[in-house]
Write a structure and sequence with these properties.
By secondary structure, this protein is mostly helical. Helices cover 58% and strands 0% of the residues. Among the domains are: 3-41; 50-80. It is built from 5 helices and no strands. The mean pLDDT is 78.
């Protein structure tokens, strides 16, 4: 006998037997009650600790100390970096309501110096385009 034929015979028999056991003998009700009992036993209860006034003062002092340390680290980092004056002498971009690729750019802005790029091609731009 092949396994597929064997499955066709056994599967309905097992299904019917399991149904009879669950419904007739009260097994299903006991399983459901055990599951319900298990769910009620695992309730999570959140408790909050009472914070004393002394603790809040200590926390505030600690927070202030940590903020001072953070500010000192930022100051040391800024002093040790070599980019201190990179943005000195710059002007903010003029906002305009116009549209286009240069909207928001000041009319007096000289733009980017591209003479170095021009020198790379040695004046042979037409030759490079082809």
């Amino acid at each position: 006998m092949k396994t597929s034929e064997f499955k066709k015979i056994l599967k309905p028999l097992i299904r019917q037997t399991v149904k009879e056991v669950l419904f007739e003998e009260g097994v299903l009700s006991s399983v459901v009650s055990e599951v319900a009992r298990g769910l009620s036993d695992n309730l999570v209860v959140e408790s909050r600790a009472q914070v004393k006034k002394d603790d809040t003062e200590n926390l505030e002092k600690k927070a202030e100390r940590l903020e001072r340390q953070r500010q000192e680290k930022i100051k040391k980092l800024n002093e040790s970096s070599k980019i201190g004056g990179v943005f000195s002498g710059t002007k903010p971009i003029v906002e305009s309501s116009g549209q286009g690729p240069l909207a928001g750019t000041s009319p007096t802005d000289a733009g980017v110096d591209i003479t170095a790029i021009q020198k790379i091609a040695n004046g042979k731009w037409k030759h490079l385009i082809k």
